[in-house]
Model the fold of this input.
Amino acid sequence: MILINILGLGLIAFIVWWFWIYKPSDATELTAENKTIVVDSGIYQPARIKVPSGKNTTIEFLRKDGSPCATTVIFPDFEISRELPLNKSLTIELPAMEPGEYAFHCPMKMYSGTLIVS
Done:
């Protein structure tokens, strides 16, 4: 019985770490050739993206994950919310941004990413 409780607590700790604490260390530079974020297996890939400041930015999302939470991406700082079709690309236009970090995520924040504007 104690072993089951320990395993349960370990699983809960892992889920909390994976969805809310873990942050990938490297950021991918957004270029003309690399503008697609793939939504699959519980993550945005890449999850940290560098974009230039002062310019409108176009990002393409490709959702491969059938999870209901993956259906929507939200950019709260810009009041943008878009439905992502399954296995189809969707282009999102973002306004020119000041330098800083801007979050994007699913409605429950299980999928999360960061725009790094410099």
